[in-house]
Specification:
heterodimer; A: about 475 residues; alpha/beta; Aspartate Aminotransferase, domain 1; Aspartate Aminotransferase, domain 2; seven-stranded mixed beta sheet; four-stranded antiparallel beta sheet; B: about 450 residues; 2 domains; 16 helices; 15 strands; about 40% helix; LL-diaminopimelate aminotransferase, chloroplastic isoform X1 (chain A); pyridoxal phosphate binding (chain A)
C-alpha cells in the first residue's frame, strides 16, 4: 500500500475545481491518491518493497547508493501528496493552491496559434520535420540571443534550447560529473541539491544540521539582504545562484552580482545562474549574469519559458554556455555540454519551439508581459494581505513568490495548519533547505478570485 | 582494394575514422583568457569521438559544401520523412489552441505522464502481459530515457551491450562512469561486455560465453542489424538474466516493424517482469522524431539486490531531473493510440516497410549479403574485408547517398553499412538505382559474392 504513496502521479494542477475539458485527454484529472502518512516534522518518503513476501526474486543489482542518500521524495510531489491527502479528508473543500509554482492563466492566442499551425504543418509534405538539431532550431536560438542577450556578446550558438530548466540542471550535473564540489544558496530551489546528491557529489545527509556533507550552503536571510557573505563561503567548483530567487524572491543587485563574479573568478569557480524569473523584475537589477563584465568566463545561465509564457506543461527552456567558459585544462565547457545534449537528449519538441519563437515576436512579448503583469498584481495582493496582518514579508517585488516569516515555528507545521484550517496549499520553507526553516513560500500564480479568496482566509486565520 | 583506398584518400585528405582532435581545442584559450579551476569530467574525456549521428550530419554538410548541386539522398540517420496522419496532428493543434482557454489551459503535468496516455499505452501494447498503467513512464524519447536509467543505476554497475548496438547505450555508460578506459587495440571500453551479434550466431549472442553484468542492453528488432529475436532467444535471455540476477533493458523502439511472430515486448516472456525494463518510442512508430514522445516500463516486481523496487528510484529521477513530456506531444500520443490514429500510423509504417523491401531486393540482386529488413526499417549490408568508413565515404562520394558505417555501432559493425529505409518512395527508388550502378560497376571494389574465388 505504502508504495502507492511513492507512485501516485503527483497532482500538480493548481486549479481548485475540476474543469470540464473539450477532449477526453483532458478530462481524466482524478489521481490515485496516497494513504496519508503519519504527521511528522520532516516529510519522509515511505518506501517499502512491494509485496516482498509474494515476490521472492530479487536481482543482484545493487541500488545506487547516491539515490539512497536522498531523504525524502522531491519537494513538490510531496506537497502534491499532502494536497491529495487533504482532499481525501475533505472532499468538498475548495482547495486553493499557492504551493507549487504552477502557472494558471491561458497562453496568449498568438503563441498557441503558432503551435497549432506547426502541429498541422507536420501533416503536410512541406511542413513535416523529423529530428531537429539537438541544440535547438536556429531561428529560435537567434531570437533568444537577440531578445535577451543583445549587447551582451552572447551569440546564437552559445544558446542551447531545452525542455526546461529542471532538465538542464540535471544535464549540467552530468557534464560536471561526480568529482566537483558545489555551493547553493540556502534556501534554494531543491533541484540543485537533489541533482548533486544523485550525481554523487555529496556525502551523507546530516540530520543535525539538515545538510548534505560536501555541499557548501550559502545562508541567505533577511539579515544579509538575502545575499551570502562571500568572505565566509568556502571555495567550490560550482556555485548555483538563482536571481530573482526561488523561494525568497530576492533579486541580486548589480553590485552583489559583480562581487559574485569576482568571487568566482578569484576561485576559478563556475556560476550556474538560474534566471527563470528574470522577467518578473520590477526594478533595474540585472536580468542576466552576462550583464556583469567578465561573467562569460565564469558563468552558465539557465532560463525557462515556464513562468514567462505559461509553458509549464508545454516544456521549453534554454541554457547559455559561453565559448569563453573553460575547464581548468582549457577545454571549453560548451563542447562537453554539447556532447551531453547530443547523447542524452534529442532536442525540445518542435511544436514547443514554434511556440517559443512566437513568444519572442513583438506581439508575443507584449502578450506575455500582460500575463506576467497579472501575476505581479496577484503578488502585490498577497504581500498586502500578509503585511496588513503584521507579518514580516519578503520577496514579492521581483518574483511571483512571497516569503513569509513565521519566527520560531516549524515550517511543515505551519504548512499543515494553513492547509487544515484554510484549505490553502503553500510550500514549507524547510523544503528549500535549513535556511528556509521558519518561512513559508506563498506562490502568486492563480486565478484572481482564488488569490483574493485565499487572502480573505488568511485574514480569518491570523486575525 | 588498393584502388578503393586510393580513391578514398584522394576524396578527402583527412582521416576517415572520425577522431575528436582534443589538442587543438585547448588552443581556444586566448592570451589573457581565464581558465576556471574546475576539472573536466574525466568520463567525458574517455569518449572517443563525437556522438555518431551528429558526425554523420557533419559529413553530409561537408559533402554538400563540396557538391552544392548534388541531390543528396539520406539513408543515414534513421529519421522519419512521411507526414504525421492528420487526425493526430489535428489533436495536437486542438490541444495547443485549448491552452489559450480557461477550461483547456494546463500547467505542470504529472512527471510520469498524463494518466489517460499511460493507460492507453498499457492497454495498446501490454494488454495481455499485465503491465499496469502505473508502471508506464511517459517521456520525451528513448535517448533521454536511456540516460535517465543510467543516472538511476549509477556508476557502479556493469553493463553488457550487443555488438553492434545503438551508440547511446555505450556512450551514456561512459558518461556516467561505468565503462572504464577505451582500449585502442580492441575498440572497446574496458568494463563493458560486448556481446557479438552476427550472421554466424544468427544475431543472438552466445550466452554461455557471456560474462555476468548487472545490466544487459538488448534491442529487438535491432538497430542496426534489423534482427528480431525469436521467442526462444528471448526466453534464453530472460533465463540468463534471472540466473545472473541481472536487469535487462529491452529497447523495443522498432516493435511496430515486426512482420513475423517475433515478440514485440520482453514482457511476453514469462518471468520477464522480475528482470526487465522496457523502453520504447513514438519516434519511428508515429513519425514523432521531432515531436518527442516515448515511454519506459518499469515493473513493480523489479527489485534491487536489497529488495528495493527499481521503480521507486526511477520515479525519483523522473521527478527530479525531468518535468514530463510536452503536454501537446502527449495529446498527440493519445490520438496515435485511438483506433483511427493507430490505423493511420500503420499505413505509414507499411510505406516504410515497402521501402525496406525495395532496398533489400536491390542488395540481393547485387549479390551482397544484406541482413535485417524484415522486422526493422534497416538493412545491414556486409562488405567483407572493407572498412566501413571507407565504404561510407565511397558511397557518399560516388552516389551522394548518406548511409551509416557499421563501426559507428561498435567493433562488431566493422565491414557493415547500415542503410535506413525512411524516405520518400521516389528517393528510395532513385537511391536503389544509384547503388546498383555503383556496385555493379565496381564489383571488384565491393567484393560482391559473385566475385569471390
Amino acid at each position: 500500500m505504502s508504495l502507492m504513496s511513492n507512485l501516485s502521479t503527483s497532482m500538480t494542477s493548481s486549479s481548485s475545481s475540476a474543469f470540464l475539458a473539450p477532449t477526453s485527454f483532458n478530462s481524466s484529472r482524478t489521481q490515485r491518491v496516497s494513504v496519508p502518512v503519519k504527521s511528522f516534522k520532516i516529510c519522509k518518503c515511505v518506501s517499502t518493497p512491494l509485496e516482498q513476501q509474494q515476490t521472492d526474486y530479487k536481482t543482484k543489482v545493487p541500488r545506487n547508493s547516491n539515490i539512497a542518500k536522498l531523504q525524502a521524495g522531491y519537494l513538490f510531489p510531496e506537497v502534491a501528496r499532502r494536497r491529495a491527502a487533504h482532499l481525501l479528508k475533505y472532499p468538498n473543500a475548495q482547495v486553493i493552491s499557492l504551493g507549487i509554482g504552477d502557472t494558471t492563466e491561458p497562453i496568449p492566442d498568438v503563441i498557441t496559434s503558432a503551435m497549432a499551425k506547426r502541429s498541422q504543418a507536420l501533416s503536410t509534405l512541406e511542413g513535416y520535420s523529423g529530428y531537429g538539431a539537438e541544440q535547438g532550431e536556429k531561428a529560435l536560438r537567434a531570437a533568444l540571443a537577440s531578445t535577451f542577450y543583445s549587447n551582451l556578446g552572447i551569440e546564437e550558438d552559445d544558446i542551447f534550447v531545452s525542455d526546461g530548466a529542471k532538465c538542464d540542471i540535471g544535464r549540467l550535473q552530468v557534464v560536471f560529473g561526480s568529482n566537483v564540489t558545489m555551493a547553493v544558496q540556502d534556501p534554494s530551489y531543491p533541484a540543485y541539491v537533489d541533482s548533486s546528491v544523485i550525481m554523487g557529489q555529496t556525502g551523507q545527509f546530516q540530520k543535525d544540521v539538515e545538510k548534505y556533507a560536501n555541499i557548501e550552503y550559502m545562508r541567505c536571510t533577511p539579515e544579509n539582504g538575502f545575499f551570502p557573505d562571500l568572505s565566509t563561503v568556502a571555495r567550490t567548483d560550482i556555485i548555483f545562484f538563482c536571481s530573482p530567487n526561488n523561494p525568497t524572491g530576492a533579486a541580486a543587485t548589480r553590485e552583489q552580482l559583480t562581487q559574485l563574479v569576482q568571487f568566482a573568478k578569484d576561485n576559478g569557480s563556475i556560476i550556474v545562474y538560474d534566471s527563470a524569473y528574470a522577467i518578473y523584475m520590477s526594478d533595474d537589477s540585472p536580468r542576466s549574469i552576462f550583464e556583469i563584465p567578465g561573467a562569460k568566463e565564469v558563468a552558465i545561465e539557465t532560463a525557462s519559458f515556464s513562468k514567462y509564457a505559461g509553458f509549464t506543461g508545454v516544456r521549453l527552456g534554454w541554457t547559455v554556455v559561453p565559448k569563453q567558459l573553460l575547464f581548468s585544462d582549457g577545454f571549453p565547457v560548451a563542447k562537453d555540454f554539447n556532447r551531453i545534449v547530443c547523447t542524452c537528449f534529442n532536442g525540445a519538441s518542435n511544436i514547443a519551439q514554434a511556440g517559443g519563437l512566437a513568444c519572442l515576436l513583438p506581439e508575443g512579448l507584449e502578450a506575455m508581459q500582460e500575463v506576467i503583469g497579472f501575476y505581479k498584481e496577484n503578488t502585490k495582493i498577497i504581500v498586502g494581505a500578509f503585511n496588513s496582518l503584521g507579518f514580516k514579508v519578503y520577496g514579492g517585488q521581483n518574483a511571483p513568490y512571497v516569503w513569509v516569516h513565521f519566527p520560531g515555528q516549524n515550517s511543515w507545521d505551519v504548512f499543515s495548519e494553513i492547509l487544515e484550517k484554510t484549505h490553502i496549499v503553500t510550500t514549507p520553507g524547510s523544503g528549500f533547505g535549513p535556511g528556509g526553516e521558519g518561512f513559508i513560500r506563498v506562490s502568486a500564480f492563480g486565478h484572481r478570485e482564488n488569490v483574493l479568496e485565499a487572502c480573505r482566509r488568511f485574514q480569518q486565520l491570523y486575525n | 582494394m588498393y584502388k578503393l583506398l586510393a580513391c578514398c584518400s584522394m576524396a578527402s585528405g583527412i582521416s576517415l575514422q572520425p577522431k575528436m582532435v582534443q589538442a587543438s581545442l585547448g588552443v581556444q584559450k586566448q592570451g589573457n583568457g581565464h581558465c576556471t579551476n574546475v576539472p573536466r569530467n574525466v568520463n567525458l574525456e574517455k569518449l572517443q569521438n563525437n556522438y555518431l549521428f551528429p558526425e554523420i550530419s557533419k559529413r553530409e554538410l561537408q559533402h554538400l559544401d563540396k557538391y552544392p548541386n548534388a541531390k543528396v539522398i539520406s539513408l543515414g540517420i534513421g529519421d522519419t520523412t512521411e507526414p504525421i496522419p492528420e487526425k493526430i496532428s489535428l489533436s495536437m493543434a486542438n490541444y495547443a489552441r485549448a491552452l489559450s482557454t480557461a477550461e483547456g489551459y494546463r500547467g505542470y503535468g504529472a512527471e510520469q505522464g498524463n494518466q489517460a496516455l499511460r493507460k492507453a499505452i498499457a492497454e495498446t501494447f501490454y494488454k495481455n502481459v499485465l503491465i499496469r498503467d502505473k508502471e508506464v513512464f511517459v517521456s520525451d524519447g528513448s535517448q533521454c530515457d536511456i540516460s535517465r536509467l543510467q543516472l538511476c543505476l549509477g556508476s557502479k554497475v556493469t553493463i553488457a551491450v550487443q555488438d553492434p548496438s545503438f551508440p547511446a547505450y555505450i556512450d551514456s555508460s561512459v558518461i556516467i562512469g561505468q565503462a572504464g578506459d577505451f582500449q585502442d587495440k580492441t575498440g572497446k571500453y574496458q568494463n563493458i561486455v560486448y556481446m557479438q551479434c552476427g550472421p554466424e550466431n544468427n544475431f543472438f549472442p552466445d550466452l554461455t560465453t557471456t560474462p555476468r553484468t548487472d545490466v544487459i542492453f538488448f534491442c529487438s528488432p535491432n538497430n542496426p542489424t534489423g534482427h528480431a529475436a525469436t521467442r526462444k532467444q528471448l526466453q534464453q535471455l530472460v533465463e540468463f538474466a534471472r540466473d545472473n540476477g541481472s536487469i535487462i533493458i529491452f529497447d523495443s523502439a522498432y516493435a511496430a516493424y515486426i512482420t513475423d511472430n517475433s515478440p514485440k515486448s520482453i514482457f511476453e516472456i514469462p518471468g520477464a517482469k522480475e528482470v526487465a525494463i522496457e523502453i520504447s518510442s513514438f519516434s519511428k512508430f508515429a513519425g514523432f522524431t521531432g515531436v518527442r514522445l516515448g515511454w519506459t516500463v518499469v515493473p513493480e516486481e523489479l527489485l534491487f539486490s536489497s529488495g528495493f523496487p527499481v521503480i521507486n528510484d526511477f520515479n525519483r529521477i523522473v521527478c527530479t531531473c525531468f518535468n514530463g513530456a510536452s503536454n501537446i506531444s502527449q495529446a498527440g500520443g493519445l490520438a496515435c493510440l485511438s483506433s483511427e490514429g493507430f490505423q493511420a500510423i500503420c499505413s505509414v509504417i507499411d510505406y516504410y516497410k515497402e521501402n525496406t523491401k525495395i532496398l533489400v531486393n536491390t542488395f540481393a540482386s547485387l549479390g551482397l549479403k544484406a541482413y535485417g529488413g524484415v522486422n526493422a526499417p534497416y538493412v545491414w549490408v556486409h562488405f567483407p574485408g572493407l572498412k566501413s568508413w571507407n565504404v561510407f565515404a565511397e558511397i557518399l562520394e560516388k552516389t551522394h547517398i548518406i548511409t551509416v558505417p557499421g563501426s559507428g555501432f561498435g567493433p562488431g559493425g566493422a565491414e557493415y553499412i547500415r542503410i535506413s529505409a525512411f524516405g520518400q518512395r521516389e528517393r528510395i527508388i532513385e537511391a536503389s538505382w544509384r547503388l546498383e550502378k555503383l556496385i555493379s560497376n565496381e564489383k571488384a571494389l565491393f567484393n560482391s559474392v559473385e566475385n569471390k574465388e
